[in-house]
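YM 10:42: Methionyl-tRNA formyltransferase sequence, as discussed on the call
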Amino acid sequence: MRIVFAGTPEVAVPSLDRLVAAGFTVVGVLTRPDAPVGRKRVLTPSPVAARAEALGLPVVKAARITPDVVSTLAGWAPDAAAIVAYGGIVPPAALAVPAHGWVNLHFSLLPAWRGAAPLQYSVIHGDDVVGASTFRLEEGLDTGPVYGTLALTPGPEATSGGLLSELATSGAELLVQTLSGIDEGRLEPRPQAGEPTFAPKLTLEDGRLDWVLPAVALHRRARGVTPEPGAWTMLDGQRFKLEPPRLRPDVEGIPPGRLAWAGKAVLVGTGTHALELTRVQPAGKKMMLAADWARGAGEIEGTVLG
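YM 10:58: structure's back
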């Protein structure tokens, strides 16, 4: 089976590797253009581009799928296209190129969390089960019929980044199984059933913690926005980044946002019980243990975040 692969970030690389290892003929790779990376803003190929080039595969870098890109895709004569986090819209002309269409690996149990940030929203909303789906891409936003799914139960401290890494590997296997089933004529997609929910791209502001909210809601949000866009609050007029805190249901009575010592632990009050800060990053410094920061900052009792 001749496959075009479309993807951009690191999370898409396991799928590309698995398709090649499974014996599919990957005739070409579509990815986003090189982007500036790091403080020096060095133009750097996407992880998928770098991996495709290492594998000796033809690569097209495009922010938009223009008529010229469609012409290139058609020239590769694919039987199907696999897409994992490409980061752009696939227009009808491109959708029509492969006889078996485009198969999208999406990191939610559709129709839950259609959109750009499905795992982040799953964690923020405290879903008991997360997962991935393969579906036939169509013009609507993640609306196409589903070929297959996989599910897992997140741990109590799971972050969206950790879950994404896990599902990138298991999802790659699901993608291979889906394309194999299509190739062998034994797999047909099923229409999505149920009320959809939506997961638009998160902004920096989505990572800001509002300490008047319940501790459980703050714990979920911090884990959901880790590593991107990252959890943060304000301290002395500057952004104060933090890794997900721990729940401390044994401590109540600290006002929202106020810091306090509890033995060697640094606690912060919320709308319910306390949270324990784990690692923090003051403006202009590196991430460090919260207790180390607090000892260096002097008297923190009474300091209010937010």
